[in-house]
Amino acid sequence: MEQLDEVNTALENQTTAPPAPVLFDDEPEVEGEEKREPESGAAPESAESDNGQQQPESRTFQEMRKNFNGALKDKRRLERELEEIRAKLPKPEPTLGPKPTLDQYDYDETKFEQAYDRWMEQKKALDDADRDKLEAQRKQQEELENFQRSYRTRAESLGVSDFQEAEAEVGAMLNQTQTGLLMRGADDAAVLVYALSKSPERLIELSRITDPVKFTVAVAKLEMNLSARKSTSRPAPEPRVSSERSSTAHSASSSALEKLRDEAARTGDHSKVVAYKRQHGIK
To answer: How many CB atoms lie within 10 A of CB 280?
Structure first.
């Protein structure tokens, strides 16, 4: 009670309005409050007494101003938080009201027709939105099925017997969001899944990345590293053209020699056979 009496006494004895609270340098002044210029010849009021001690009413107003500033800051902070929450909430879907009837407009046909036309426009807009939503869902499902089909085909083409075990190991380490980012972000998801199952350290390091953007970048880097290793680890197969040519030449030589031998058997002249053998080094 004593503190309340002091506040009331201070308010009654105050000759000038307290200065408007200032939160920031660019904060506008509160409307309705103007600075009073001291009367000519009058000495400026001082918040301190002759002996330098601060008057009780001055300390009271400073405390009130401090409390007001704190309350204003809290109010603005709560307003910002409320706006952020509202922005995250899903927008309510528009609904179609009941079809207008003539008796709602006291059998005024003009008003009824206007209301009915507006209702039909709303109905058409909602029907179009539902149709677009269903089409988008159908395309999304179709893309998912095509991806799953190509992924399984690629996994089978690897020719490994433990792909399902490798896939289960990767799925156990990554959460659902990470798995989806890996599957849709990698150019060759099946190869990357199998490679990660054979590299536990890389798999553990990847599972610790929770930021979606950083996770996608890490997947791209792993796939680039994997592609580079695939291109440099396997030497190119040696050409087999020389052996094929040798086999082909040997077959053609044998065929020609057989023809010369048949001719020599008919004519009794073996000179061509001997010359052919000498030419090709055949004994």
So the answer is: 11
